[in-house]
Amino acid sequence: MSAGPRRAAVDRLRRAVRGTRAWSRAALPGRGGALPDFLIIGGQRCGTTSLHHYLAAHPDVRVATGKELQFFSLHFGRGTRWYRAHFPPAAPGRRSFEASPYYLFHPSVPARVAATLPEARFVALLRDPVERAYSHYLHTRSYGMEPLDFAAALAAEPGRLAAALVDGPDTPAAHHALRNFSYAARGRYAEQLDRWYAHLPAERLHVIRSEDLYADPAASYAGVLRFLGLAPFTPPEFARHTRRADTGPSQLTPALRAELAAGFAPHNARLADLLGWPHTW
């Protein structure tokens, strides 16, 4: 088995073990945890793993059993008892959270979250959509799921997504395509935020640029803590975490970069208007 399929198999096994343990805890009387106080909802390949580490280091924060529980996207049918089993019981002065980057993009998630977590707060990281698209492509390819080169994968994306969504966004085929082949679609951020704002007030969703987190993590982190109502804190380090190293010759040629940038330009302009940002990318 090559590295990509082996990595995918290991990740599936890890998630299965975590889910089975949650079912076991959920079956025990009185063992349900408290629903989370906040979520990191995305975007994918935008620094969510780094922010997850920074927040997990805070003394008043308790993490779920793992990153990317995907309850509101992949496992909503398992019910909130299963979801609660991934969290510790409520404790005075303590907050719990999870981080699932698919939440920002999946169309069914905002309504489910709003109904289940009516008082929670949410954090979204947004990265230059051109860079994000290529990083996403490398991520999918590293799992052995992308046979096409980057330009061909971008050209195939609309057809792949349309075919997978014929029976709605919650089928296995839809999840596979939406998670793995949405290179450009996930970079149209204003569309995704519109879905969230349709179900919750803007003041419950804190949006930051990934580039700002990378350039000045202390300032971005302090802003997140203020938004969440957490006491000021500085973690031991602001290391940059990523699950996949980008190696090999880049397929993001100057011509392809320019083409992508032109395609994203109107979406970036609308995002700037939506958030009141002076510029995006």
From TrEMBL:
A Pfam family: Sulfotransfer_1
The keyword Glycoprotein is assigned to this record: yes
GO molecular function: sulfotransferase activity
Gene3D superfamilies listed in its UniProt record: P-loop containing nucleotide triphosphate hydrolases
Residues in Sulfotransferase domain copies: 36-231
Keywords, sorted A to Z: Glycoprotein, Transferase
PANTHER family: BIFUNCTIONAL HEPARAN SULFATE N-DEACETYLASE_N-SULFOTRANSFERASE, HEPARAN SULFATE SULFOTRANSFERASE
Protein name: Sulfotransferase domain-containing protein
Source organism of this protein record: Micromonospora rifamycinica
